[in-house]
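Example (one chain per record):
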Amino acid sequence: MSSLTYALAKVTTGFRFADFALKGMESCFARISRTLLSKSWAFMIPNVRQQVADTLSSATVGSLTIVENGQSSVFGNPSDGGPHVVLTVLSEQFWVRLMLVQDLGFAEAFMAGEIS
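Predicted structure:
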C-alpha cells in the first residue's frame, strides 16, 4: 500500500468517524431540545397565543385562519377579496419557537413539521 493510499484511507476513516459522531451529537441535541421545549416553556404558551391573537386582531386586508386542536381563529376580513391563509398548528412547540426567534422560529417550525 502506497503512502498516498494509506493517507487517503486514514482520512476517509476519519471522516466516517466524524460523520458518525456528528449524527450521534445531533440526535442527542434533538432529544434534549424537544424535552426542554416541551417542559420548561409550557407555561408561556397560552401567553404567546394571546399576544399573537392581540397582534393579528388589527389585520384589515386579507385574513389568516389559525387551526389548532380542531379549533380555529380567524383574523382579518375573509370577505374583502384579499389573500386568505390557513395555518395549521400541529405542535405546541411552534408557539415557543415563535416567541423565542419570531420569523426564524416560524421557518424552523415549518421545517420541523410543527405547522402546515
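Caption: The helical segments are 3-39, 45-56, 93-111.
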